[in-house]
Amino acid sequence: MFKLFSSVTMQPSVLVASRSISTCGGPLFFRSSVPMFAEPLKKKKRLDPQILKAREDRKRKKIEKSIRKLEKVSKTLKPIDEVQLMASLSNELDSRQRPIVVHSNDKLEERIVAAKAWSMYKHDEHFFNLQVINDLEYSQQRALNELREVSEDLYQAAVDIDESLLTCQLTGPVETPPIENYQSPDGEYIDISKKWD
Amino acid sequence: MKTIHHMIKLKNFYRMHSTTQVKWDIMAGLCLQRKPIITKPLTDTEVNFQNILQEIEFEKSLKSDHELRHEKDVKRMEKLKNGKVIDFDDMDQASNQSAQDYVDKNKEELLNFKFASRLTEADTINDTKSLKRKLDDNLVLIVKQKLGHEDYWVLPQGLWKDGETLRETSERILKESCGNNINVRFYGNAPCGFYKYKYPKQKREQFNVEGAKIFFFKAKLLDGNVEEKGTWTDYEWSTVQELNKRLIQPYMKNVKLFLSNYNVNT
Asked: Which GO terms describe its cellular component (chain A) (predicted)?
């Protein structure tokens, strides 16, 4: 019979060794498993689906509103004061006209002559500048060529880039020289720059 | 371009294979400049054309707020003279400052401010050692150095020492001839000009050196001034026009090439 129901049978070896099968130090055949340590599950709170929906709607509306706000802002450009004409000015256009001056022929001719003299003057100046640039280039190239003949190392050192010049700042000549030991009068600093959000 | 390279190669070839080995002294020269502090006075053409442009600009313009205010003031004064009745609005305005008052006040403020003179004391006594002379011009430092038996006006110069680049040589020359109390900015590592001259025959035979090759480096004075030192007997801050008188001719011709702002008529 045991042979027929082999799955039900207890092997004699199992029975014999049963005292040594224990998996832990506890009582024999008593298995402590992970779920035994767990807390009993809390009962899930059931919320009214309508309230849930209302909450979600509110959230979505809030986001949509902020998006709309952003879009609105992006459309308005910073006004450029120099380009935009003040409305009051265009109304006053008539009162701001100057009387038209009609010049005599002599005066007009004088202006034309001056303009011609000016263009000649600028022409000469331009060619003079070209000449100066040409001289500078020639002089430097000649020096570099001569240097290369003298020593290749010195030449390579000379054509090396001087990076300290990248931060070089120049301030141009002014109309009158600076006054020595000048104490500038006190004044209030008022920041009139506009802020754009 | 190709031909230039070819020519340089050819020149090198001749140099390397020439039978008599000639030795040259390598020198660095320093072109230290004080850049103009004030603008040059306008020429007649410039002044003339500037006036005409201003006239045209004025004719094409519209009246400003200030001009409208002034016209209003004039009209009100006429009304007052004629003894016409003035309403309270006008009365109130009359107590205010008029446009003309505003102009007068500003003019007075301008007159009270004293601008520094474009001509300095150094100009009147012609102090060529001062940095405050000829504020509208480019000044170049020249020194009187003993070359051979005679004194010559030259740009500060000195012999190149083995192991340093030419830029370093010129920086050393700056320290030697101007002292430590000076702050300059060099215009890059490359020389801006070149000059070579032969030594007198006696020296050539004695030292077996043909002459000197001078590579000039440009620098701009930032602050400080020249200290009295021993490497020269005299120094001067001179304009390019004055350089013409000081420097000897073939030297000047080469120096002039890299001095950018000499005038059209010099």
From this structure: mitochondrial large ribosomal subunit
